[in-house]
Amino acid sequence: MVLATSVDDVTAASSLPGPTTLISTGPRPSFLISQLAASSPLRATLEACADQPMTPNSFAFAHRGAPLQFPEHTRESAVAAARLGAGTIECDVTFTKDHELVCRHAQNDLHY
Question: Which sequence ranges form a coiled-coil region, renumbered to this chain (predicted)?
Answer without folding.
Answer: none
